[in-house]
Design goal:
The protein has strands spanning 2-6, 10-11, 17-24, 34-40, 47-53, 58-60, 68-73, 78-83, 92-98, 101-102, 106-110. With 112 residues, the protein is an all-beta fold. The strands form two sheets. Strands 2, 4, 5, 6, 9, 10 and 11 form a seven-stranded mixed β-sheet that branches. The chain has a four-stranded antiparallel β-sheet with strand order 1-3-8-7, with no helix packed on it.
């Protein structure tokens, strides 16, 4: 399984961050798989953002829930993260993940 993140590297404060993870080598609808977004701010540890499941259910970190939406496009075998009302504190490397499988990560900077 391979995962690849894509999206803009620079987002302005108050806007919505949108990233897509394209999955190859396996289907995002395969039973019992959960597809996550995780981020790592500079100088800090990993922070789990949320997941979308094989059955299209979602669950978000309580600290980010009010600003987070994860959806999927099964025809493209992709899932997408949207994080609204971003601030500079949302600057991080963002990863998509399924268990031991990780994307390479994409840097997102929030700045005007």
């Amino acid at each position: 399984v391979q995962l690849q993140e894509s999206g803009p590297g620079l987002v302005k404060p108050s806007q919505t961050l949108s990233l897509t993870c394209t999955v190859s080598g396996g289907s995002i609808t395969t039973n019992l798989y959960y597809w996550s977004w995780i981020r790592q701010p500079p100088g800090k540890g990993l922070e789990w953002i949320g997941y979308i499941s094989y059955s299209d259910s979602t669950y978000y970190s309580p600290s980010l829930k009010s600003r987070t939406s994860i959806s999927r496009d099964t025809s493209k075998n992709q899932f997408t993260l949207q994080l609204s009302s971003v601030t500079p504190e949302d600057t991080a490397v963002y990863y998509c993940n399924r268990g031991s499988y990780w994307g390479q990560g994409t840097q997102v900077t929030v700045s005007s």
